[in-house]
Design a protein that fits this description.
There is one protein chain. The chain has about 100 residues and is mainly α. The protein has one domain: 434 Repressor (Amino-terminal Domain), CATH 1.10.260.40. It has six helices and no strands. Helix 1 runs antiparallel to helix 6. The protein starts with a helix and ends with a helix. The N terminus and C terminus are likely disordered.
């Protein structure tokens, strides 16, 4: 792997790791005034699991979709914004570099 590709790979990892999706979910739940029990009932996710989710930096996409629907918040947009904020250019360059060899 060339230096440019290694650098791009490190940038990709550092951008994704900045999003703490569990914390984002917890903050949204609090801001809309929904408690853990109510969210658990709406999502059919056990309360204990929700508390574990709040501590995670990443979660399964099906779970994230379910929480997005119930909290009326597009959590996937956080990742899209990271991509459009410069990460997408890094991955394009990395792909072009790999394809040219």
């Amino acid at each position: 792997m060339k230096t440019q590709e290694i650098s791009n790979h490190k940038n990709l990892n550092s951008m994704v790791s900045k999003i703490n999706i569990g914390q984002e979910i917890k903050e949204k739940m609090t801001s809309v005034g929904i408690g853990v029990t109510e969210l658990s009932n709406k999502t059919h996710i056990e309360r204990r699991r929700l508390y574990r989710i709040f501590k995670k930096k990443s979660i399964d996409t099906d779970v994230l979709f379910n929480l997005s629907v119930q909290l009326k918040c597009d959590f996937f947009k956080l990742y899209s914004e990271e991509l459009s904020g410069g990460l997408l250019n890094v991955t394009k360059e990395s792909h072009v570099t790999k394809m040219s060899h």
